[in-house]
Amino acid sequence: MNRRDLLKNAALATATLPxxxxxxxxxxxxxxxxxxxxxxxxxxxxxxxxxxxQHLVALGHRVDTVDLPGHGLHARFxxxxxxxxxxxxxxxxxxxxxxxxxxxxxxxxxxxxxxxxGPRPILxxxxxxxxxxTQVGEQAPELIGRLVYLSAYCPLQLKSxxxxxxxxxxxxxxxxxxxxxxxxxxxxxxxxxRGDAAYLEALRAAYYQDVELPAFLPFALALTPDLPSxxxxxxxxxTRERWGRIPRTYLRCxxxxxxxxxxxxxxxxxxxxxxxxxxxxQKTLETSHSPFASQPEQLARLLAxxx
Length: 307
Known about the structure:
Number of strands: 8
CATH class: Alpha Beta
Structural class: alpha/beta
């Protein structure tokens, strides 16, 4: 090779070097993506997570959701809910009255078992969905990478969500007039998402007070009226060897009027005392009970930042 060819090749290599290095920098690998499975709370369903899902996917993560039995497209409605007969609605037995908590837990396990690339899923539960997390964590800890309780019930010492809801720490002065009918008669905990303006404002004030009414209405009108009572009253049993070995996070909602911060903190303390070697990682959102509606991007970023 003559001197002219050597100089030409050297110049070509020098000119292309920044392009190669720039391409390498541009193609630097992103942090490994995470898998999330999201479990809604009482009367809600997968659609209520939509804005959080959008942000998590934009951050490069995979998200699956669970519609618990009796919710979402699994919902079944009392006839009086459709006819608007208020007196009948207060006493008509629900078509969901025989659904058991174990069926809800199995629905979550079925989603966890679905094949997916990457690490074991981070299982997130909101509100009543926390009871499902405790049950599923005990039944199938090998399927879960982390448990995340989003202002959620974490029944341990008292075993059931209803037992915690009866404590003085649970009282906020909101939402107590929303329930319709006797749960022992209708077989469910019943609300009326198709209620009048005053009822919907009371619903917003209890669960979504940091969401303006026009933005709240799509969330409210997508709710299912009946929550199977067993989801709230059935006792769950967690052991240190199974549920207690899973890494866990509690996302506190500091302005919560539905699941009071004092009750959230009580359940965190109980869990940490139960497994002092595996304590809750705690993070706080300055939101109502429904950050998936009021602060979906902030919630998604908190979730994406979990180990």
